[in-house]
Amino acid sequence: MHQLSALDAQFLNAESPTTAAHVAGLAVLDPLGAVLDREALAGLLEARMHLSPALRLRLRTVPFGLDHPYWAPDPDFDLDRHLFARELPAPGGEHELAEAVGEVHARRLDRDRPLWEMHLITGLTGGRIAVYTKVHHAAIDGVSGAELLAAFLDLTPEPRLTPEPQAEDSPAPGLGDMLAGAARSVLTHPARALGSLVRAAGELDSIPLAASLPGARRIARAARLAAGDREPRSDLPDLTVPRTPWNGPISAERRVSFGSVPLKDVKAVAKAHGLSVNDVVMTMCASALRAWLLARGELPPEPLIAGVPVALSPDPESGAGTTVGNRIAAIVAPLATDVAEPYARLHAVGRSMRAAKRRFAESPANWLHELCALLPAPVSALAVPAAFRLASVVAPPINLIISNVPGPQFPLYLCGARVLSYYPLSVLTDATGGVNITCFSYDGMIDFGVVACPERLSEVWTLMAHLRTALEELLDEGVGDELGDGVGIDLVPG
C-alpha cells in the first residue's frame, strides 16, 4: 500500500480543463523486417508488464479528499483500455505525426484506470513506425519514466528472456486504513506544515517569484540561522521573471515539434569552452527562445528564467525504491537571453548554471517538496489550479521548464524494430508557461521534444529550427570532436 507524496499529489491537483499533467515519449522506429503491429506490442506488454508494476496501479481516493490518494492494483485491468493503434494520413511526414501526437498529448488520462496509454502509429514515410507513450506525472518523473520504457526494450533485435512474474503482495488500502491515515494526517499537519514553512523560508532566496520579493535574502539568512545552519550559501543572480508572449493562461490545445542534433557536436562545443554538455543544451534553448522573441519584436531586456528539474538520489528512509512516484527537485537559473553574442551567451549560461548547481548542492532543504506540503490535502486539491491560473496573470514564477535527460549511447529495439529516435514531451501549466523544451540523449544524438500551447506559441517548428541554428552558431573549424561532458547533476523532465 503506497500513498502519494505531497509532490505526487500536486501533479494531480495541477490538472484542470486546460492542463494535462502527464509526461510522454515518442519513439520512431525502423522495423528492419520485424513485425511491429498492435498484436505484437500487446504480447510484449503482457509478457513484461510485471517489470513495471506501476502500469497496473490505479488511484484509490480517500473519502471527501481528506488525504492524498493511494496506489492500488487495478482488479479490472484491461490492456485494450491502454493500447491503441492509428494510421497517419498521407504523406505521413513529421508534421502529420506531430499533429496526431499533439492531439493525443492534449487529452487527460482517465483516473478510473491506471494512468498510462500507449499509441502505435503507422503510415510514416519510409515504412517507419512510431510509438507514443504517456504516463501521469503523479506516477513517474523523467528518470523513472526512462527506466519504465527500458523494461520493454532490448539490446538486440532478438527479444531477451525476462524473469517470471513474482506473486504480488500489495493489497488495496481498506476504507478504515485510509480514514485512520487521514485522521493522523489532519492532526499532525500543523506541526509538519510549520516545519516545512521554516525549511522553505531558509530557501526563500532561491524559490521562483519569492526570491524577487524585497528582503527575501535577509529573511532566508535569518531562517537558516534560526534553524542552526550557519554555513554561508552562494548568492544567486536576480530571478525576476520578465513577461513573454507564452506566459499567461493556456488553452487545452497542444502542438508539438521534434528533432535531433549530433551529440558529438554538442560535446565538441562543451570541450572547446570548458563547459558541460548541459551548459551547451541550455544555451541552445536560450538562443532559440531569443531568436523567436527577436523575430516578434518582443525580446525583454531582462534574461528569461528557466526551471530545470533535477533527479534526486533514492531516500532509503522514505521507502525509495518503490515503483511509483517522483524523486525530483528543481533549480532555477537565468538563460542569458539578454546577451547578443553567441559565445558570450554560452559562457553566461555556464556561469548561471554553475551558480545554481552550487546553491543546490549547499541546500539541504528541498523547497519544491516543502512548498507542496504546506497546505493540507483537501485545501491543496482546491487551491492549486486557481493559484496556477492567478500566477500566470499576476506574476509567473518562471518563464518555462527545460529538461535534459541522459540516455544510452547504443541502439535499442522494440519487438525487433530499431529505435531511431526518442523524443520526450512534457507538461504545460498556467504557472510554468505555454512552452516546454525537453531533450534526451540517445545513440549519438540529442533528441528534442517541444510542446506548446498554440494560443501562446504557435510556431513550434520554427522554435525547433532555431535550436538547430543555435548549435550551428557555436560550431566553428576550431572545435574538435573530442568527448567532454562534465555534467554533475542528472536533469529530468517535469
Automatic annotation (TrEMBL):
It comes from the Bacteria. Pathway: Lipid metabolism; Glycerolipid metabolism; triacylglycerol biosynthesis. Residues 325-474 form the O-acyltransferase WSD1 C-terminal domain. It is an enzyme of class 2 (transferase). Pfam families: WS_DGAT_C, WS_DGAT_cat. Its EC number is 2.3.1.20. Residues 4-281 form the O-acyltransferase WSD1-like N-terminal domain. Keywords: Acyltransferase, Glycerol metabolism, Lipid biosynthesis, Lipid metabolism, Transferase. It catalyses: an acyl-CoA + a 1,2-diacyl-sn-glycerol = a triacyl-sn-glycerol + CoA. SUPFAM superfamilies: CoA-dependent acyltransferases. Belongs to the long-chain O-acyltransferase family. PANTHER family: O-ACYLTRANSFERASE (WSD1-LIKE) FAMILY PROTEIN, WAX ESTER SYNTHASE_DIACYLGLYCEROL ACYLTRANSFERASE 4-RELATED. This is Diacylglycerol O-acyltransferase. It comes from Nonomuraea longicatena.
